[in-house]
Amino acid sequence: MAAAQCLPLKFRFHLLATDMSLKLAKSQHGCAIVLGSTGLIILGPSGSGKSRLSHQLIEQWRKRNNYARWVADDRVIVEQFGNSYLVKSPTSLQGLAEHRFQGIESVDWQPKAVADLVVQLSPGKELERLPKSAHHRLVPNGPTIPKMMVPQDHISQAIELIQARLAQESTILPSESN
After folding, report:
1. Which CATH number is associated with domain 3-168?
2. Which of 32, 40, 142, 154 supports an S-S bond with 72, CB 3.0-4.6 Å?
């Protein structure tokens, strides 16, 4: 784990903000959220449940008084800073998220986050029973970050897999006390 990854979130932002090695910015179709101190970028085809998964993950974390915020919904701007990625929302979409069949709503959000994990929504039949460790480049020739595949057709199972992965990486999970 890189030294910047071990720092609390607010210090990681400062470290990235002062790093002048911005190499490339790219817009991606997806969502970006922060759970505890971990930034997730959720990718998948249109209509696969990226926003729904993000809403439910944030809701679960908040029910247990843990930090959870939106960064971006639908479009995510990805910037490479050294060996890390910074994600943010396009100005026109800041603080907004879609609730399918309910409309666009204002959400609690933060302007930027370090992307620590890529979550790829995929049809269940495409998932491996015993997945290998995977990594993903968010920009061409950029650094790789961990990636996990989750089923788009079973959101509760996707949430369980994400929670297990975050627990494995010693990230703050929703506590049962509180």
Report:
1. 3.40.50.300
2. 32
